[in-house]
Amino acid sequence: MKITAIRSDRIYRDMMTALPDKKENIYRNQLMKPFEFKWACVGIPLTAAQEGGYDVVSAATMSGFYAPVQITEERQAEIEKISSDTFWASCEASIRNTLLDFEKHGIQLPKQEYVFTVMLSDPQSPMTAMTGDYCGDGGIPGYIIGSIVPNERSLGLLPVALAHETNHNVRWQFIQWSNHITLADIIVSEGLAETFAAKMFGEDKVGKWVSETTPGVLRKTIKPLVRENLEAHDFQTLSSYLYGDEIMSLRGGQPIGMPYCGGYACGYALIGHYLKKTGASIYEATITPTEEILKQSEDFWK
Predict the structure, then answer these.
(1) Which residues are within 8 A (CB) of 138 and not within 5 positions of it... i.e. 6 or more apart?
(2) Ranges for the DUF2268 domain (predicted)?
């Protein structure tokens, strides 16, 4: 198994001292290009077809990462915080331990090569304010991106998020992605990933996307909304039920009455119910089709 770290700290240092018109090229070709296949899978080109068009740079900025022009000497302290070999080793260990844990439990992974990096999030970005000071992206097998506003807390919790994202990496090696992925598929995937991260690091480490939802809100508001839309497969609809009104408003979405990250909280509760009821392990569940999990969890919605 090969895991390659793209050391963003070193790339950011090069960007920090580069002339303004060179920063974007460094960002695009050194930091983003190793993930070109991942971006292509979700329809984002490495370079826009026309100047000012949508590409990896604009997409990353919309996600809450610093834009290339923002990587100046003002970012030096933040870059320093993600520059230790110990930090990068802990990130890689989380990914490696997750993958090896599945193999130890008899699940042979088709993918044996992985690339990861850690991006600096802009604390002034509305998206960062909504998602928190650490997060991740791991839906395309072989590619994992962590994001962070580096502080004592987030530096310690980023490996938890990376375990979550690596669980996604495992599941989507066995469950075929298509344009007809449903809300059910998404909430099951998120529930599995957060449950796995909690198993690896402790339930007290679950992310705010789960921990900030009260049982009452889950029962009275979130579950009914999700249950009525389990078969939805329009991407905008999926995102609305997964992220909630606050985040989607930042993306121009219309409110549907969904609290913050309601889909994540619902998925986490659903998987907890499924595991308790069936006695299945989180390893088995991670590669179990959504339909089977829902079939065994019909009473969850009552």
Answers:
(1) 144, 145, 162, 164, 165, 166, 167, 168, 169
(2) 87-295
Share of the chain above pLDDT 70, in %: 100
Q: Report d(CA 102, CA 84) in Å as an integer.
A: 28
Q: What is the pTM of this model?
A: 0.94
Tens digits of residue pLDDT in 109-138: 999 999 999 999 999 998 887 778 999 999
**Residue located via tokens 């508001």:** 221
pLDDT-based confidence at residue 97 (cuts at 50, 70, 90): very high
Query: Can you tell me the distance from the alpha carbon of 158 to that of 122, in angstroms, rounded to the nearest whole number?
Result: 16
pLDDT at 133: 93
Q: Determine the Cα–Cα distance for residues 295 and 267; give it in Å rounded to an integer.
A: 15
Length of the chain: 302
